[in-house]
Structures are given as structure tokens and as C-alpha cells.
Amino acid sequence: MTSWFRGCAVLLWEVGSDDPRQEVFCTKIRKNQVVYMTEYNAKDAEHLHPLIHSHVPSEPALRVKALETLLVEKGLLDSAAVDAWVEVYSDEIGPKVGAAVVARAWCDDGFRERLLADGATAIGELGIQGWAPNHLKVVENTESVHNLVVCTLCSCYPHRLLGIQPAWYKLEAYRSRAVRDPRGVLAEFEVSIPETVRVDVWDSTAELRYFVLPQRPEGSEDMDEQALAALVSRNSMIGTQRDLPIETGGA
After folding, report:
1. What is the CA radius of gyration of the chain?
2. Are 115 and 213 within 8 A, CB to CB?
3. 40: pLDDT confidence band, cut at 50, 70 and 90?
4. Bridge partners of residue 210, in order along the sequence
């Protein structure tokens, strides 16, 4: 509950000191204590209650937001810089690294065989280093097999290859249902898997991370490695996308 109240304070601070709603319901945060203003208007509070609940995110997000707000106020952090790093790491650095691995495997059968046999060693050939790749297993989609990656315990993920995991990857609904009903989960991603295709679900752990090698799309035979990498999406390397279109690159 403490983080919820912190979040309320942060939310109301963001509303602005000139907003009358802040005068109706304002909190001071002390150590393990919330102090309310003495003035109270039931009608205004009734209006404010759903407003707060409609904007307050999950508790971990509240903690992060509260910490960020304090650091910004103390001049130790620039929110714009944080946003820029998150955007680059989630959209550029990670997925592009994984896409380059996939493209090399599509173009080089020898590399593909080494990648499937020992993923960590194979990606080292491309200069990819870091803690996460040392615990890597690559699984390949084929005409008869589709692979789906999940972490049922938390959100273990090959960050060095894919960047920051998407929000849905961390949700309990995905983590539990991907194992019980993988075809149903894939259908929610608009992926229809024929009954003739087996769906294998791989549960990542702190010791072992999984990475899907998607099928090379038909009609891409004349494309070079760089052009092929542009086709590969983050979701295809998790397994929540199967068919990669040639006309557009993945995101």
C-alpha cells in the first residue's frame, strides 16, 4: 500500500500545483506514513477516487516512477535521457542484434548448424558478448514445428539479443497461458498454427534462455544479409509471430 500512496502523491504532483484537485486530496510522504490535508470535500473526493485508479499503474511501476521523480527533483537524473535510453535499448540495440544472428543463419548453413548446436559459442563468432548469451539455447521453426518462448517464473529473457522484454511477456496471463494453451495465446497475436504443426513451448530460466530461429520467408532468396535482418521482428524471435512479410521489416 505504501507504494500506492507514493504513486498517488506522484500523480497529483504531476497534475500541477495550480490544479484545484491537488488541494482536495494532497499527500505528504514520510517514512512509512501518509499525512492527509485536513480539508475534505466528499463530492470532490468521490470524483477524484476513480481518477486516481484510472491512472495509477502497477506497484513496481509506481516505485520506479517515485524514485525517478525524487532523482529528477534533486537534479541527479534527466527524464528525457532515461526515455531516450529505454527507446534505443528496446527498439534498436537488442532486436537488431538478434535479427543479425537470424540473417546470418539464413545465409550461412554452417553457422546455422553451429547456432543450433551451441548458441552461445556461435553468436560469439559475431562478437556478441555478455552474461545472458552464455546461457542460450536456439530452437528452430520448421514446416512441422513452431516454437514459443516463455518464462513461467518471472521474465527471464535474452536481453543481449532482444533488448528489453515487452510488457506482455512479463504478464502472469501470458506466462501461465502460454504453457496451458499456446495455440490460444498465439491466436491472440493473430497467429494461426495448423493442427499439422506441433507447438513446442520453452520455459526460460535464470540458467537457460531460449531464442527462436524463425523460418526464412519465401521470396527472399535474392536478398542480402542486411536486407534479411530488416525483415526479422522481435516477436518472431520469441515465437509470437510465425510468418515474416517481405515488404515490411519487423519491429
Report:
1. 23
2. yes
3. low
4. 137
Output the CA–CA distances (angstroms, integers) from residue 184 to 89, 116, 174, in the order listed: 30, 27, 11
pLDDT digits (tens, 9 = 90+) for 200-231: 999 999 889 999 999 999 999 999 999 999 99
Quote the CA–CA distance of 93 and 210 in Å, as a whole number.
18
Amino acid at 55: H
CATH 3.90.330.10 domain extents, the chain: 82-238
Catalytic center residues: 151, 154-156
CA distance readout (Å), 174 to 12, 51, 166, 167: 32, 28, 11, 10
**What pTM was estimated for this model as a whole?**
0.66
Measured CA to CA, the distance from residue 33 to residue 89 in angstroms comes to 37
In this predicted model, what pLDDT tens digit does every residue of 56-99 receive, in sequence order?
556 777 788 888 888 889 998 888 888 887 777 666 677 999 99
CATH-assigned architecture of domain 82-238: Alpha-Beta Complex (3.90)
DSSP symbols for 203-216: E--SS-EEEEEPPP
